[in-house]
Amino acid sequence: MRDKVILIAEDNANDEELTLRALRKNNISNSIVMVRDGQEALDYLFGDGAHATRDLNQRPQVMLLDINLPKINGLEVLKRIRADERTKTMPVVILTSSAEERDRLVAYANFANSYIRKPVDFDQFTESVRELGLYWLVLNEPPPRPRAAATS
Amino acid sequence: MKAPRTTIQRKLVIAIMLTSTTALVLTGAVLVAREAMSLRSLLGTELSTRAGILAANSTAALAFQNPEDARQVLSALRTDPSVVAAALYDGQGRLFATYPNGAAPPLVPRKPGRPGRLFEKENLVVNQSVAEGANRLGTLYIKTDLRQLDQGVRVHALVVLGALLGSIGVSFALSTWLQRRIAQPVLVLAKAARAVSERKDYSIRVETVSDDELGLLAGAFNDMLAEIQERDTALRSSEGRLRQLNAELEQRVAARTIELETSNKELEAFSYSVSHDLRAPLRAIDGFSKALLEDCGEALGETGTRHLERVRNATRQMGLLIDDLLNLARLSRAELRREPVDLGAVGQEIAASLEQAQPERKVSFVLAPDLRADGDSQLLRVVLDNLLRNAWKFTSKHPTGRIELGQTGTNGRRVFFVADDGAGFDMAHADLLFAPFQRLHRQSDFEGTGVGLATVQRIIHRHGGRLWAEGAVDKGATFYFTLWENGS
Amino acid sequence: MPLLSPPARRRLLRGLVPALALLGLCATSSASVANALEVKRTPEYDLKAVFLYQFAHFVEWPARAFADAHSPITIGVLGEDPFGGGLDEIVTNEAVGGRKLVVRRYRTVDEIDTCHVLFICPSEASRMAAILTRLKGRNLLTVGDTKDFVAQNGIVGFTLARNRLKLRINLAAADTAKLIISSKLLRQAEIVHPKGSQG
């Protein structure tokens, strides 16, 4: 379970804190990588910028992606993830405040694996995070590692 | 408009010629006939007179048995070439003398005829008694050839015919001249009318020459054209103004459309930011309140805990409000589908879910069958959900309740309704029912954001219908709605 | 136009039909006729009778020759009547210009009173000159068929030429008798101007 990294793209410090709290409360002990904007998320995934030295073989088990991100919008980030061979198959869950139909449509059109709306009620939020972790980290079998990444 | 080249001219000439020719021919015929008759009569009289003279001259020849003298008397007829034959008969009717000398039957009759004149086919025959006083001596017979008369008549007819032809020629010349005087103004008028109708040129004027009815007509035509020209000018200028106004209006509409689109985009951006930026702090408030309760619950004490619970309730309420508001805003923009919807079935599902949520409630649903309507099934579901949920909510203070979904017809138009026997409302405040965030009941009595009925009204309006309510405090409320009032 | 009465027509018929045809045959025997009442009728004298009748139509008498407007026209026969009743037959019931026609017979010239046409018979041939001299000055149309009748101041003379009865008229004598003879009649006749006669 050690290598099962959860990548969270979230610019709101409150939401970040609450998400981490909810994960902790649900005993999800996986290593969690936090990125604060879209650019950083892409840098992490493709080993650019501050994350140039990162081992790209370490791929997140799941990515929780907010839409309303600075620099590069979450949906644009999703598009780039799906456009790259290395991250094409990575599970991406949209976790956002937006209930906009348009956002949901664009997300699913770019092969988001789930679309979760953050409830205002923290109890509900905690419950959502618990179910999310349980599902993606325990129940769900991840896709095999991409060959290109494995050989490099 | 095809030009009827010379029709009126030809008609006029034909009319005049027909009239004058008919009159001339009739006159000519009468003249010839009269001439023929008078010639005959004259010839007859002449012959009778001559016969009388001859008879008088031949009395003695007969009386004294002198055929030579008789022949001599008859030979006087030589001067008239039209005389074919003549004969004298004595008192006993025997041939006494003949003319020409030696003439014999059948050139002359064997016996004298009755005295008098007789027109035969080609001849005029006179039998004249010869007598000296009362002394009847015999009969004179003269036969003349009518061909001479026919000749005379023919000559006369020729003269008349010549006069006739001359007159027709003169009348043709006259009628041509006259018709030009009559037809020319008409043709000018017609030409002008054609020009007007072809070129739409109302500045054309007809030159008025005659001061008769045609002149009047031309004057009236000119007046009419002047009037039309005036109106045409007015029409053109008002058309121009109208076009200008139209253009301005279009510009304004375009500007408004742009404004509207801008404001729509702004509204979208607004609701987008509301959904994100308003909810995120709320979630933080609720989340950290919960964290506070969990982490420092004991330090807060009972009062602090209760206060924090209040904060969390208010936060959740505000979350609901934001969601409802966003829904309401989205309704205005969402595309409207039109499809057959069974409102009864939808109502049934909603009623079932309500009963399932609160199985302890004793509420009877009365759902009319066959509540078919046209509209957006999702939006109409929102309408029924709101109305039935309202009814369910406002009957909650009563031990039992009755909720009805049905339809009535007024003036052949279908009116759907949702009626309950719950808390009802004061009709004095009926106009506040559908305004967003307006509530007629205390939050402590009935929960709600006050957006539900506003949403319903928005949906009904988008379906071209009306929504209204009747009710009385504690006597229940009935919500009526129609769909597509302006045509199905 | 006055019409002839049927009897007159019959008489004329009888008188004229044979007249021309038989004239020649009968001419020779005419001289031997002696007695008026006994003599047979001949075509020649029948024709002469008709002529006598016709003279009344073509001759005008002065007014004084008649007693009044209705006085008859008298046709006289002096001497031995050669007509054998033919003249009477023709004249009976005839009228000219409102005057009846009557036939009178005279044996001598002295017997003649009112007379308008006088046929002097051949029987008087020997006394002809004396008779005519006697009658001179009277309004009387003297007619005769004797030789030189007109030369003896007779007014109308009958002559036969080529089997036809011809007339000779002494206009001077007629003038003396104050008679106007119709030109029509004159046309039918040979006008004779006797030498020595008063014109």
List keywords for this structure.
heterotrimer, B: 488 residues, alpha+beta, 5-stranded antiparallel sheet, 5-stranded mixed sheet, 58% helix, rod-shaped, C: 199 residues, alpha/beta, 8-stranded mixed sheet, two-stranded antiparallel sheet, 6 helices, 10 strands, 32% helix, globular, disordered N terminus
Structure report:
The complex is a heterotrimer of chains A (152), B (488) and C (199). Chain A has six helices and five strands, in the order βαβαβαβαβαα. Chain A has a five-stranded parallel β-sheet with strand order 2-1-3-4-5, sandwiched between helices. Chain A has 152 residues and is of the alpha/beta class. Chain A is globular and about 40 Å long. Chain B is α+β, with helices and mostly antiparallel strands and 488 residues long. Chain B is 58% helix and 17% strand. Chain B has helices at 7-57, 59-63, 67-75, 147-199, 213-333, 343-357, 377-394, 452-462, and strands at 83-90, 95-99, 116-119, 123-132, 135-145, 339-342, 362-367, 372-375, 400-410, 413-420, 467-472, 476-481. Helices cover 32% and strands 22% of the residues of chain C. Chain C has an eight-stranded mixed β-sheet. In chain C, strands 1-9 form a two-stranded antiparallel sheet. The model of chain C is unreliable at 1-11 and 13-37 (pLDDT under 50). Chains in contact: A-B, B-C. Chains B and C meet through helix 2 and strand 4 of B and helix 1, helix 2, strand 3, strand 8 and helix 6 of C.
